Batch of 2 targets.
Target 1
Amino acid sequence: MVYVKSQIPNDVSIQVDDITFQAHKFPLISKCGYISNIELQPSASENGYHLKLENLPGGAETFETILKFCYGLPLDLNPHNVAPLRCASEYLYMTEELILVHDLYMTEDGNLISKTDAFITFVVLASWRDTLTILRSCANLSPWAENLQIVRRCCDLLAWKACNDDNNIPEDGASDERCLYNDIATLRIDHFMRVITTVKARRAKPEITCKIIIKYAEKWLPLIDEDLEGVRGHGLGKSELKFSVNNREKTEESSLGCEEQKGIIESLVSVLPPQHGTISCHFLLRLLKTAIVYSASPALISDLEKRVGMLLEDANRRCQKMLGNAMMVFTEQLICFSRPILYYQSMIEEDCAKQ
């Protein structure tokens, strides 16, 4: 239980999650339209009133900050807390009209909705690093952050930054752009898809889209053994193969379940640029292997097979060597490469027929 210390006795208790705040009614109703309009119920155990705030965005920690704001204490806004505060202020209806009604001498310079909105617009969205921070903080604020357009504004800013700050960065060079791609790859898949979809809608170069997708795959998709050592498992059918997945340090991305991994694969493939030659054969093969291991949809696997088949003609030496090793493993059942090779052969036959 949290008490507001004052010589005036507390007359209202507010429960948020498992914490009860003992406070005063007037400071709250002067800033919170929700509390001002609701009919407060008398407390059964103590004098005064009791109110339980169900599903308040940000929970008890955010409400404690709001409570301090209602009592006139300094408000410390930062990229980590501004999204929960913006959502909670909307929940509590902390509008400017309340300031005009209760602050007759105009000593206040705005209620919490306007303050958090201004901070997001003029401070957070001026920095892509702060924008990433606030977007991550929106993970547990659905649907409030979506309805208030916080997620959309953040994704739009990140997409704009990614589209406009690519300057043919050398592979071994460190730069803000390279850090931007790495940081975008830390987003959860739904937010990442919003960013990449906006990047494509802005007609960014396919190479930019590919770089971002590859960074995301490198972080979230497991590494299937590079040498494609298919090991027959005990009890598996004659034509079935069991793949081993490289063990990695226990991290958030490596602890994802099979369905989550499958969802990530299908999402990434759905936004691959259609232009020929924008994606390396090596990366497509990795997606294909992973898609097979996690039993992605036949249509998705077929799409990847076609892409690989189209790239066989101009595959680099590394890809050719990997294909050779892979085909030795799949001598009985060419699970990954039979149809790509058929696509490749059909293209050769078409070229010969034209000559």
Target 2
Amino acid sequence: MAPWTGAELSMLNPLRALWLTLATAFLVTLLLQLVPASLLPDCSLFQYLIRYGKTKAAGPPRPAACRAFDIPKRYFSHFYIISVVWNGFLLWCLIQSLFLGAPFPNWLHGLLRILGASQFEGGEPALSAFLVLVFLWLHSLRRLFECFYISVFSNATINIVQYCFGLVYYVLIGLTVLSQVPLDGRNVYVIGKNLLMQARWFHILGMLMFVWSSAHQYKCHVILSNLRKNKAGVVIHCNHSIPFGDWFEYVSSPNYLAELMIYISMAVTFGFHNITWWLVVTYVFFSQALAAFLSHKFYESKFVSYPKHRKAFLPFFF
């Protein structure tokens, strides 16, 4: 496991700069939401950009011109279609290189170099990046399945900026994983020329955490969808209700907490020390915390009997 050195910390390549910027932006946005509204200038456009779905109802009235850019929240499925196809392609390229010795396409290799792909000296074990890319693809495939067969979408909306951001996000996240693969020219460099020889205890721990977090997220999505169905599984309404069970007993948005845990499991799989991925985790933390906070405020404003002990995102803390 490579140590965190001062020189490594100072290397702010394009990907690290991007994820650091996104994390900072969502941190500032979250902090602004914690400030009493009376102390801030009225900015309905800002609230329009950060809210989606049910949380739009709890925000200020949207500018009339903005409503033309609303699209159905069910279009979330497009994010996962893009991810399954694009990250599946990246995974296929990695498999070809790892097991058949095929080099990356010129355009992909050039893009990875621009983004800051590591060279083989002191680079990540190829097995770590391979497992994380597999996790990312499986996560996207499960979420796509849930969008089609589990989730019950209402007439809630997202705006076009959020939609475009989501599409770009799943392209960038796959490139971020692939850029952590140690390269020797256009080929993947495998230490010892044997992928299985790179297996370490943190790969097993990361895999177990990924399965555990994914199972809880799936269960939370099932609980949410069942609120809109009868006992026969037939959708009877699209209203919001108070969910109970599993992690809902502790936080209002356990699906967002599980999302964070999934990304932390990937950081563990990278061996704990991958700075680029921890910046991704930091972004995920603040973005999911913001969404969870807004969702928590919605539940509190809509249901007078909402459980007082529930936190928004982190059990017992926030």
